[in-house]
Amino acid sequence: MVGLVTVVIPTRNRPRDLRQCLLALRENDLRHLDEVIVVDDASRPVVSEEVELANLPVRVLRNHTSLGAMASRNRAAEEAAAPILGFLDDDALPRQDWLSRIVEGLAEDRGAVTGRVLPFDQGVVSRARQARYLQRYRSLTEGQPVTFFAGGNSAVWRDLFVKAGGFSALGVGGDNSVVDGLQRLDRPVCFLPELVVVHRNGKGLLRAFLNAYHAGRDHPRPLSAGTALRDVLRARPVPADPASQALNWALQVTHTMARGLAAPRPADRRIEV
Q: Are 43 and 12 a contacting pair, CB within 8 Å?
């Protein structure tokens, strides 16, 4: 089929990254592409030249105040017409078979698919984040249902995304909130190891700790003592890369403490059904 996928890319103040993302997407089999919706999350300057240079069917939606990536993706989903939504971060570069893998892998009995993230940057923060990704992927097999949804490398049936309420948690880590909604519809998120993007993992030490804190504070599931202990022990330093593993341990402690101390939060705005 032709034009199955609307690709959604939220962006804020990253014109060079957005340009490279769109150019990488252009190397895909564009017969599968319906359009690209770029959500300009109150960037300064506004997104314009980056889209024109890409030579793709791009539509730009602009948030006049910053709403964040999750709310921006929900907005794009409301506007999309294609049956499949593909999600990319603006600092991710999809592999040349990215669209083909989505169309081939998103079977009718799957609600969504998510894949692997690989780094194109260096440094301890990047290595620490990649170590967490690799730990997540290590025991997974092709097509296995998973409890995570990588908002920067994933695809979902649009009608199921709408029925599930979209991203119900709009903060850092809110992309995983769609998993529970799809599970209630008996349509799991499945892992496709060949669905690959390369990504800037490291955005600074302060950002890493802030993200860990906010992801813990906004986590949709309650925290048990057993879960807290397991998560902290799983992130303990190991000899292979002591610097990045020590950072991972500190980030996990930050996440766990924020999650344990968080007060119940009101539901965030979901996508309109």
A: yes
Distance of alpha carbon 28 from the chain centroid? 20
- Indicate the average pLDDT of the chain: 84
Asked if residue 266 is part of any domain, the answer here is: no
Rg (CA), the chain: 18
Phi-psi region of 27 (alpha: psi -120 to 50; beta: other; left: phi over 0): alpha
Q: Which residues are within 8 A (CB) of 74 and not within 5 positions of it... i.e. 6 or more apart? A: 166, 167, 170, 269, 270, 271
Predicted structure pTM score: 0.80
Among 174, 199, 224, the domain-final residue is 199
Region 135-159: mean pLDDT is 94
Q: What is the per-residue pLDDT for 273? A: 34
Residues 82 and 195 in one domain: yes
Q: Angle at the Cα of 251 (from 245 to 254), degrees rounded to 5? A: 145
For residues 118 and 212, membership in a common domain is answered with no
